[in-house]
């Protein structure tokens, strides 16, 4: 009788473990999907911001360029055209950021760094552990240390 009960309990325990494993896998997949969707939304907002900024900067660049060219022609001073040069680099960067391939080049560079220069990504003092977090938490709250020592 005890053997049969033990066998049934073992089978139930195994089913429960499989169920828990399935649930934790499902939860992990959902978390990954949520994080992916959040990243996609943040990237979309960043690109939208770049495009909106480009509209304003493009207008500023156009008005400034027309004004500087008109001033250079009217006063016969070609040195007034000098600010157009650096402003054109900023405009080119903004166009590349908003509509170009900047994001693809950045992703490629990031993948290259992760593959070949992974040591650059290491955190100072390594990855935080439970012990290091608890040590820091207790250091900020010394009264908790006294309570823990006295309750033991």
Automatic annotation (TrEMBL):
Keywords: Receptor. One of its GO terms (biological process) is positive regulation of plasminogen activation. The keyword ATP-binding does not apply. The keyword Transmembrane does not apply. InterPro entries: Plg-R(KT). Signal peptide: none annotated. GO terms for cellular component: plasma membrane. This is Plasminogen receptor (KT). It comes from Solea senegalensis (Senegalese sole).
């Amino acid at each position: 009788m005890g053997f049969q009960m033990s066998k049934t309990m073992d089978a139930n325990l195994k089913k429960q473990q499989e169920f828990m494993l399935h649930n934790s896998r499902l939860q992990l997949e959902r978390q990954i999907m949520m994080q992916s969707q959040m990243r996609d939304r943040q990237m979309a907002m960043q690109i939208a911001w770049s495009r909106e900024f480009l509209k304003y900067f493009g207008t500023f660049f156009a008005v400034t360029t027309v004004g500087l060219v008109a001033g250079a022609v009217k006063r016969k001073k070609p040195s007034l055209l000098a600010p157009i040069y650096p402003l054109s680099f900023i405009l080119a960067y903004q166009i590349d950021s908003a509509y170009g391939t900047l994001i693809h080049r950045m992703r490629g560079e990031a993948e290259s760094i992760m593959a070949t220069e992974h040591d650059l990504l290491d955190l100072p003092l390594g990855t935080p552990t439970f012990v290091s977090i608890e040590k820091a938490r207790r250091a900020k709250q010394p009264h908790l240390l006294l309570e823990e020592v006295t309750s033991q």
